[in-house]
Amino acid sequence: MYQSVLRHFPLLHRHGLTIRVLSTTPSALGKARAALPPRPTVPEDTLTEAFLRGSGPGGQKINKTSSAVQLKHLPTGIVVKSQATRSQSQNRKIARMMLAQKLEFLEKGPESRVALKGERARKKKASSGKKTRRKYRALEEKMGDGEKGIGGKEGPLVDK
């Protein structure tokens, strides 16, 4: 369902023009999207940080520099290693984010930010799959009404 939203652009408004924008965003449709909880943080005094030499693809730059970061959360003993980039500072940020997400998931379970985002993605994927099946079911019914299918043959579109 599309909702028409009237937007004013100052440059066009001077010439007496307005633009009507069709939008399907939840805010335009009047649906309030459930807010995610704030991003978790981990106190620095509960961590030990080690810089390790990387391994795997990336050649000399990865193998000779200590750009991989390993964090250990002292109270729980959880260890996280990040070697996503060749930059040590970026790997530090990524490792902290990963550790915070793991700790939050341990604490809150299905109410954590990671779990909620995963659930949203799962629902979106399921909805997309339903839409695809509906489309091909309608197409198959249309082909079953005597119209020619793929390759000029009559009958269903897909063998079952």
Key attributes of the depicted protein:
elongated, 4 helices, alpha+beta, 160 residues, 39% helix, 16% strand, two-stranded antiparallel ribbon, 3-stranded antiparallel beta sheet, 5 strands
Q: How are the SSEs ordered, and which strands pair?
A:
Elements: E1 3-7, H1 10-13, E2 19-23, E3 47-52, H2 60-64, E4 68-73, E5 79-82, H3 88-108, H4 113-144
Antiparallel strand pairs: 1-2, 3-4, 4-5
Characterise this structure:
With 160 residues, the protein is an alpha+beta fold. 39% of the residues lie in helices and 16% in strands. The protein contains 4 helices and 5 strands, in the order βαββαββαα. The chain has helices at residues 10-13, 60-64, 88-108, 113-144, and strands spanning 3-7, 19-23, 47-52, 68-73, 79-82. The strands form 2 sheets. Strands 3-4-5 form a 3-stranded antiparallel beta sheet, with helices on one face. Strands 1-2 form a two-stranded antiparallel sheet. β4 (68-73) and β5 form a beta hairpin. The longest helix has 32 residues, at 113-144. It starts with a strand and ends in a 16-residue tail after the last helix.
